[in-house]
Structures are given as structure tokens and as C-alpha cells.
Amino acid sequence: MRIVLTVAAMQKLARRWKQAGRRIGLVPTMGYLHAGHLSLVRCARQAVGKRGRVVVSIYVNPTQFGPGEDFTKYPRDLKRDLSLCRAAGVDVLFLPNDREMYPVRTRSRGCKSADEPRSDKRGYGTCVVEDQLSQTMEGASRPAHFRGVTTVVAKLFHLVLPDVAAFGRKDFQQAAVIRRMVADLNFPVKIIVAPTVREADGLAMSSRNQYLTGDLRRQATVLWCAIQMARATAKKSRTFPAMKLKAAVKKLVECEPDAKLDYVEFFEPKTLVPVARVTRGVQMALAVFIGETRLIDNARI
Which of 64, 3, 61, 67 has its CA nearest to residue 29? Predict the structure, then answer.
């Protein structure tokens, strides 16, 4: 496995692969890898074939974190990530730093780091903004989050030149936003969205799960319980009022002493438009604080 640290080196290597006719698969991550990430590596490998090349990028992108979020304490374990990538057969691990990804020391208002003073208007000023699918749910709870996501993913696409890129279904809205960006900006990239990988008790795998200690880990399963309850409700009734089901989800979640519902939404999976009545085939997404840890999940009803 090769480790690439700079933008110039990654671009040079990607161009060389393209000239040799090799297909490229990209798995963008923020590190602290788990089985969910490794499933994306397998998807990328399958898509590009034995002669193709699979690149995993690890970069904790500051522009997708808001003020007061967990950018500085986001879990990092590069030694472990290296070992997992080697075992998974990754060809290249791309490890850019902030200076490589955002070459000017400070960012402008458009693509600010979570830790940057809001009065500093100098520096990096070009962003990629998807302004339709990104407005609800995560976009409403975390303003500017998707602007940071689409900007960094667009940059990675230009640097790695992938034929395919793999994302996880746990971040359902993110995948939808990236697909729209790819379509709108004519990126020649096929987006693969792989199924959510779960722990034995149903908790969706996430790097942030390592924050959960003691009884908080048990309480975190309430997200999966809420999904199961919504599915059971839809199974009993062909159509059910969304507001009534939202209230039931909130009541279930907040029965746990350290759980607080951020949002729950029922929506059309292709358009992300909220629905007034829940029927089979509708998508559900929710975000819940377990103590100070914010977790998200989603599922088809």
C-alpha cells in the first residue's frame, strides 16, 4: 500500500493510472475506520476490478464542522487505520493535511473551519453549494455542514479522478446531496451507496460510537428501536399520520435518561420531500443526542 501526502503527488499518480487505462475507486473518510468503511472498500474494489486502483482518503475536514461541534476531539487513530487499510487491500492511502486541502492559512466566511474566528474574512473563498436537497434535516440542524462536505468531496474528485466513489447509506442525505452535485456539475463519477453496517444490537457503526461509555452505549440503541417501532406501525396501517408517528418516536427516544431527539423526518427517498402520511417505501431519518454525542440513522419504512 502506498501512502500519498500531497495534492501534487495524488494528481500525478491519478493521471498516470488514467493514462494506463486503470479504473479508480475512491472511498472518502475522516478516519477512525470501522467495518462500515471496510465494506465501502470492498464495494470500490468490486467496481474497479483487479486491475483497478482503490484509494482511501483520510481527512478530518474542518469546513463541515460547525462552531461548538467535535472537530478538535473527533476520534483519530492513524496507526490502526493504516493496518486496516493494508489488510483490506487498499492501493493508496491519501492523507492530506489542511495546508494541502485549503492552501491559504485562513478560510473565508464561505468555507470556514469550526475553530476560525468569524471576523476573519481572508483566505479560501471558493465553495461548492447544493441548495435543494441540503436544506432539511442535517442541513437545518447543522448550517453550512453540507457546503463543507460538497466542497471537500468535489476537491477529492479532482485530485483522485475516480471512476467510482463509495459512500455509506447511514448518511442517506449526504449521499443524495453528493449524487445531485455529481449530476449537476457533470462529474464523470459513479456514486455507490452501500448498506449501513450495524452492530449486533442494531446500532449503526460510526466513528463517533467510541464516545459512548457505560450506559450511554446501551441507550444509543434507541435509534434502532425507533426505526423498528416506525416499521411496525407502518406494517399495521397502510397509512399513518407523520406528525403522530414523530411524536411517538420522540416519546420513545426520550424515555432514555440521556437521550434527546434532534429531529425525525419521514420523506420521499428520491426527492427528500417530507410526507404528511407514512406508508411503506417512505424513508425515515433521525438524529439523537446520547449525552453529548450526536448520532444519526435512517431506514426505509
Answer: 61
Q: Between the CA of residue 273 and those of 244, 276, 299, what are the distances in Å?
A: 18, 10, 15
DSSP class per residue in 135-162 = SSTHHHHSTTHHHHHHHHHHHHHHHH--
Asked if the model's pLDDT at residue 209 lies above 60, the reply is: yes
Q: Could you tell me if 165 and 191 are in contact, meaning their C-beta atoms sit under 8 angstroms apart?
A: yes
In what helix (H) or strand (E) does residue 222 lie, and over which residues does it extend?
helix 222-236
Tens digit of pLDDT for each residue in 23-66?
999 999 999 999 999 999 999 999 999 999 999 999 999 999 99
Q: What is the rounded CA–CA span in Å between residue 143 and residue 157?
A: 23
2-194 folds as Rossmann fold (3.40.50)
How large is the greatest C-alpha to C-alpha distance in the chain, in angstroms?
58
Catalytic entry in 34, 37, 145, 158: 37
Interval 125-133 mean pLDDT: 94
Active site residue 37: yes
Residue spans per domain, the chain:
2-194, 207-300
Domain 2-194 and domain 207-300 have a common topology: no
Residue 40 grid cell:
465501502
Q: Which CATH number fits domain 207-300: 3.90.1150.10, 1.20.1440.20, 3.40.50.300, 3.30.1300.10?
A: 3.30.1300.10
